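Quick one:
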Amino acid sequence: MSNFKMVAKTFAGLETILAKELQLLGAGEIKPGIRVVSFEGDKGFMYKANLALRTALRVLKPIAEFKVRSEDEFYRKIYNINWEEYFDEEDSFAIDSTVHSDKFTHSRYVTFKAKDAIVDKFRNQTGKRPNIDLRNPDVRINIRISNQLCTVSLDSSGDSLHKRGYRTQTGEAPINEVLAAGMLLHSGWDGLTDFLDPMCGSGTILIEAAMIALNIPVNINNNNFGFKKWKDWDPELYEIIEKAQLNRIRDFKDQIIGYDISAEAVEKAKENIENANLSDFIKVFKADFFQSEKFTKNHLHLVFNPPYDERLAVNILEFYQNIGNTLKQNYKGSQAWFITSEKEAMKNVGLRTSKRIKLYNGPLEARLLQYEIYEGTKKKKRKRIKRKK
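Output:
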């Protein structure tokens, strides 16, 4: 099988993490961009990328690239693509478009124009036209116009890859699974220590942490990959790739713990954890983080998503001050990471950050903050120097 170019889409701030994931999987020609990473691999690698990439939202396979200067030229060049190579008139399709261009300013118009070109092509050649199905199409097409450059791709993922299949219960403003995995990988979580999410909500960060620790292919329960409906779908090759990924699962003997002050959130988290078949590895308790203490003598890794201002019935500045006080007094020998968009409140934590990483939590610009909570004091006492008289 020959290699071809692919593009993995992600969130802003996760490009370097996704590039590293691709490198570890064995991709070639890796080039990070803005919210995307391009790479090369064969059909088997495309299957593996969809199964195993934790921080990818979609994996696209470009099939055409050309310059467009007018709407008529766009229609003509979309029409001229050999669509019959990819699907038939009995199949359904959908189009997603993004535009960054002075000439083409409305993505919906680009979608309609491309749809017309594809439908006209089939109707003129076969007398029949394929149907549009926005929910569950046989083929999902991605069109991106940047200035005058148009790239047409097939979406090999189908649904967004953040839909892992385990989350049936959610709390208020649940964190996206891809963002949760990206936070964990940014934090250096490798499954070699004890782990705590002290404000776990519906359990997304806990589940992603366990899958990293166990090296479970993150989309192993996804049965709706887009490539499974393609003309060149190879179920035997997929089975080989899937088995190889499952054989890489490892054991985990440390503790992954979650707390939440809400009994309802704890029950939702437990249900999602059970759906992910991870109940043997994750324990969740109803507990107030501010009244808690470090549960292990070993180094502890914390990653969490504190509730945002609109979800709190308390003083936000005081809340963040309590986070800092609890970490400082009760969690010595720990490394804590949390994400927040509360720029003023983060000053009230009262601890010095080791790292600040810009990420986006939905539409909110946020920071992923790292705090090293040392045993005792970090600073070594200076020796007194006796002055000569």
